[in-house]
Amino acid sequence: MKCSKCGGMAVINLHQHRLRLCEAHFLDWFTSMAQRAVEHYQMFTPDDRLLVAVSGGKDSLALWDVLLRLGYQAEGMYISLGIDEGIGYSATSRAMCHKFVVEHHPEAVLHVVDLAAEYGRGIPELARSEHRGRGKPCAVCGLVKRHIMNRVARDGGYAAIATGHNLDDEAAVLLQNTLHWQAGYLARQAPVLQEREGLARKVKPLVRCYERESAAYTLLRGIDYIYDECPFARGATTNFYKELLNDLELRSPGAKQQFYLHFLRARAAGQVRFEGPAPETIEGEDPSGLQSCTRCGQPTTAGSLCAFCRLWERR
Amino acid sequence: MKCSKCGGMAVINLHQHRLRLCEAHFLDWFTSMAQRAVEHYQMFTPDDRLLVAVSGGKDSLALWDVLLRLGYQAEGMYISLGIDEGIGYSATSRAMCHKFVVEHHPEAVLHVVDLAAEYGRGIPELARSEHRGRGKPCAVCGLVKRHIMNRVARDGGYAAIATGHNLDDEAAVLLQNTLHWQAGYLARQAPVLQEREGLARKVKPLVRCYERESAAYTLLRGIDYIYDECPFARGATTNFYKELLNDLELRSPGAKQQFYLHFLRARAAGQVRFEGPAPETIEGEDPSGLQSCTRCGQPTTAGSLCAFCRLWERR
Hints:
2 copies of one chain form a homodimer.
Chain A: E1 12-14, E2 19-21, H1 23-40, E3 49-53, H2 58-69, E4 73-80, H3 89-104, E5 110-114, H4 115-119, H5 123-128, H6 138-155, E6 160-162, H7 167-179, H8 183-188, E7 192-193, E8 202-203, H9 211-221, H10 237-251, H11 255-268, E9 272-274, E10 291-292, E11 299-300, H12 307-311
Parallel strand pairs in A: 3-4, 3-6, 4-5, 6-8
Antiparallel strand pairs in A: 1-2, 7-8, 10-11
Helix pairs in contact in A: 1-2, 1-9, 2-9, 7-10, 7-11
């Protein structure tokens, strides 16, 4: 298999782009895909200070690495959630973030918030006290991460929070929302969520990259990452939709990308339009009727205390 | 397994409805599902004369049977396409239609159009002379069937053409159109296509029934049907989408139904809207700019001769 650019030995076949690339050209290509997404969706400029949400996984570390290599002012932000589950999940993922800094970008800034140390309880304990988390703590965990990321981004005056969501993630969420015709979600799923009323801007520069590409990128860059997914995420519905889309991709290479990118284009062109009640979410995802939480000051639709602050009321 | 209605021995478990039904209650239920679709989508009334497109397969024979049992004026219409492919496909499917009449509804009227006898060539020969059909004759076959059905329906003054499309068929087409965000198709996919400018009204009374339900219905009613699908349809993309949806259904019973019915509801409520160029189709499916074919008089967007009449020009 020869590199489509230089004729050297290709290490990856990007079926959907009809490209076979050698190591050097793939690393360039992946980086330029991220850069093009940043420009195309007008995510940020070199003057902006960015907060990269890093989990120790391949996508977020690949993103942070790419942004630093491209010269962006990208600081890392790791939230230690206190998840052990017999595999030391949080400890390992935190160590991966530190290792990444030491080995690849010793000058980079990594912020760490330790949930148990700062707030008194980790996700597993918190979820047990909350009926929403009784089955799986994922909803509570999402709420906590969004709240803390938003707080740190606002307090630190960052222009945006950058997350490592890749095309597989976005396509799976899109498929899930489409199969249920969730007009409210379909109206707002996007590579950029604009800042509004106390909610920091959010951007997803890897939105055009396949999961296997960010895995290949970290591998070829020698970036060590945590291979296990969060033990609580096993069997998640999103993984099922990813599998469906992978079956589709196997049959027609590029289908996954086409599904997501055509959606964005058709919506931008007004060919498909969605109007619906804003998703019932937490932490003021509802764009209408935002108030400030009387305790933390973050936006909320929930009344005087935001959902995050209410979490800590229960024991 | 007990019948949810009478406690007798259930023969089928309708997971998505949380219903288990005995033979008698299932046959009633299936019939009432069709009747409710007819009423809900205002398809036709007992005063209307209907032309049922029958292929000898389970869905179209189940539909015809249900309509006759409900007392509708439903005449059958079979098009013999001249497909043999070593399994006598057309001969067998035609025999099944006649057998159905003889064994179940001896008073029913079955119209037969034999393509080779009336026009000189069957589908395989026709497809070979047409670049559109070189790979698979399915596009040519669809064109031919639509044209002939429409001619017979108009000449005979029928109120509508009824087809046996089931929920699996519709959901698969919907998934295909959605994965490509085909706004033009998504705008018009519906259980009823209204009559317009020379195009007969089309209705799909089984649109709320799963494929396995129409199979169970024909089995329990003792209706013999052709088990083989058309040999040319093997490996069709639609079958792939059906498999994807079956995987989804297995994981969450009712998902297939929800996908299709929520789509219709969300579109009717204006929560999702589609606007796009009319699908590039044949036989005047494009609602704008219809003219009459100078040879057959049927509507066309293609110029003086409609696509069907042009088919026979080439040898």
